[in-house]
Structure formats: structure tokens, C-alpha cells
Amino acid sequence: MTEHMREPVISMRKLEMSYGNKPVLRGVDLEVYAGQIIGYIGPNGAGKSTTVKIMLGLVEGYRGEVRIFGKDIADENIDYKRRIGYVPEVAELYDSLTAQEYLTFIGELYGLEQRKADHKARRLMDKFGLEEVYFNRISSFSKGMRQKVMLISSLLHNPDILFLDEPLSGLDANSVMVVKEILACLAAEGKTIFYSSHIMDVVEKISSRIILLNGGYIVADGSFQELRSQSHEGTLEDIFNELTGFHEHKAVAEKFVSIVQEV
Ligand SMILES: Nc1ncnc2c1ncn2[C@@H]1O[C@H](COP(=O)(O)OP(=O)(O)OP(=O)(O)O)[C@@H](O)[C@H]1O
């Protein structure tokens, strides 16, 4: 079966969103299929988090249609949320809880039995080398340890779609390799991964499809090889600079440093 004969897992039509009178999304059309790892990129403030939060049902007031698992998310049916995992860019963990308390709590929110959530969370912590701190308070955790707890919490209920915002933030080189491999395995199992990041070389390597949002529109959509052959640029960083019309990094840096030196 070709990809386009299947139902999209996510589909957006004419998605528009404004904050006050400031338009952020000006008409985003998108269909995402099971098994895709979408590298979702764009300049700061382009609207990536806004799009993700709309899909998560956290932002209202958008125009257009968003369907997840074939259902319009505006229809008050929140069942789809049980099949979604989310790792936000800034982790809002409950510092006073232990990892065990936090993860079993999240597991229960997603409908797992307490005992099962505990057993699963403990084994996942073990795989990330955190078995010894399972009963410790999150307030004592380093940045990377917190990030691993967030990743585990987003996956406990075995979601079909995973939204990740800078998921490798704070992870050491070994853990980065493990997480990249986990994402590839999940995609091979038919999970859909929506991966937002500014680390272009990682996005280039892990994404099966890259979507570049700029000025409220999708300005590029394809595999890295497709984008590269269209833009005649070498790396994803070069393609990003080209498509967002940015060529002044040296001039901006020089000006910045010259202002720093004005004392
Ligand atoms: N709650 C809000 N109220 C008002 N404006 C907002 C709100 N949330 C986002 N914005 C604005 O919407 C625009 C898009 O923000 P968004 O966080 O979606 O960007 P982003 O692409 O995720 O950026 P970054 O790469 O910096 O994380 C920005 O101009 C931002 O100031």
C-alpha cells in the first residue's frame, strides 16, 4: 500500500492562528503518516510550539481543521490524548516528588494501573541508568536526568504519536545515541514522531521528512535528500539559512561584539 492510500495520522487544513492581531500561522496544510519522523524546524517564534500545542488541545481560537487519528479535535472528544505523548521544551516536573511518585502518577493519569506504571517506570529508569535514583526526589536531579524522566513519562502509556521539543537537551553523548535509536525503533514500529529542534545536524540525520515553518507558512517539506537537491545546498543548516533568507551571521556577530566592547 502506498503512503497516500493510508489515512493520515495527523491532518491540518488551512490552519491559522493569531495572538491578538498578530498572525502566527497563516494557512498550514499538512498530512502526517504513521511511521514518519517529522523534523519540525523554523526560526525562533515561527509558530512550531503553537502548532504542537494546538494539536495537543492546549491552545484554542485557531481557524481551519485539525484531525488526529481521523477525528476533528474540535469535536470535544479527548480520547485521542491517550494516544499522544509530549515532551515540552521546558520540563515542568514536580520537584518535591520522587521519580517513582511522579512517573506512577503520570502513568495513572494515562490510565495505567498504579502497580503496572510503577513496574514499567522502574525498568525504563533502569535502561537509562537511573535505577538508583528511582526513589529520590526530582529536585536532586541534574538537567539530563530530568530530561530522561520526561522522556519516560511521555512513553509510559505506549503512545502512537510523540511530540518532542528539543528532546536531547541536556543529554550526554551516550544517552543521545540511545535516544536517537529509541526514536528510530519507535518509528519502525509505526509510531509517528513530531520532532522540533534547532540542532540541525540531528534533525538532518534522524528525520524521514523535514518541515520548515517560516512566516506562518510551510516553506519546505520533504526528505533531507529532496530538500538538498531542490536548494543545491550542502547541510540542513545551509538549507535553513537559504530558505529563511539569512546570510548575515558574520555581520550580526561582529556588530554584537562591537557593542559588547563599548564601555
Ligand atoms: N500565549 C501567547 N500569547 C501571545 N503570543 C504568543 C503566545 N505564545 C506564543 N506567542 C507568539 O507566537 C509566536 C510563535 O511562538 P511559538 O512559541 O509557537 O514559536 P516557536 O516556533 O516554537 O519558537 P522557538 O523556536 O523560539 O521555540 C511568537 O511570536 C510568540 O511571541
Automatic annotation (TrEMBL):
Entries under PANTHER family matching the protein: ABC TRANSPORTER, ATP-BINDING PROTEIN
A GO MF term: ATP binding
Gene3D superfamilies assigned: P-loop containing nucleotide triphosphate hydrolases
Taxonomic lineage of the native organism: Bacteria, Bacillati, Bacillota, Bacilli, Bacillales
Pfam families to which the protein is assigned, alphabetical: ABC_tran
CDD domains reported for this sequence: ABC_DR_subfamily_A (cd03230)
Alphabetized SUPFAM superfamilies for the sequence: P-loop containing nucleoside triphosphate hydrolases
Domain ABC transporter, residue spans: 10-240
Keywords (A to Z) from UniProt: ATP-binding, Nucleotide-binding
Name of the featured protein: ABC transporter ATP-binding protein
